[in-house]
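Lecture 7 notes: from sequence to structure.
We start with the chain below.
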Amino acid sequence: MTDSPYTAATRRTTLVHIPLVAAPIAILHNLPGSKTLQLSASTIAGIFGGTITMWNDPAIVADNNKITKTVYYKKDKAGNPVKVKGELVVLKTVEVAPHYTLPNKKITVVYRNDSSGTVDNFTKYLNKSAPTVWTKANNKVFTTSFPGNINDPANIGRIVGQGSSTGVAQLAGKTPYSVTFAEVSYATANKLKIANVINPAGSSVAPDSVGVGAFLASATQDVNGFLTYDYATKEAGAYPLGIVSYMLADTAYPDKARAAAVKDVATYLLSSKCSGDKGAALGFSVIDGALKAKSVALIAKIG
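Predicted structure tokens for the same chain:
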């Protein structure tokens, strides 16, 4: 499984990317209090790029003292969004005015220092959504995509690296006034809070299966299965840091028994029984609608 395209020079031309499950990348923070922090793309880019260094920076204050919208979609029993004729069913839209008083404390940024698809997708979001702030292209290595000099003396001890999602969440959990990015499931175990992201429609959206499903509805897909995300989507309830995980499969296995086994595994992972019933509680979202139909078609090509 992979969260990013496999583009190695040795890649076989018969390989396809099959989207099987979706999930959000969450902004996790270690601030006191119980209010929900909300951050825009440019503010997130400034925080992780080292240009916003204090929690009471005017950009963060502005994000958390503006009126935003929260959209509530209809969900099924597993917590997944319900669609009618391919459209998400909106139950209500509520205006929110948080008025969050932020502390006069330095921000400690904890980033992943290992190569990962999570880093690749996170830095892609920053570059596509706030290109004047996060000026470098995405990369699986955070320091390669970092828009400034991460070894600048001002960044030493303030922007720190740690390996794996487990590692960054554990360090952030031990570091007051820190912020990191990881899967939602790492928040509770490490006593971290989860920020909402302000999307291009002006909505404050939590990283859940419904928001991810709304975001993926506008993605496009190439013939090999790989998705291009629409970070500018105006879907009101879209969580713009949603990603999919792909199974890399071959359409020309020499061993037909192996091909059949791979096809069976892919079919199960795509099913609502797996990603819906078991994954929703962990923040995963089912692949459905037109995207699921394309995944089914790609699975059928395994042979």
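Points to note: The chain has a mean pLDDT of 89. The first helix runs from residue 41 to 49.
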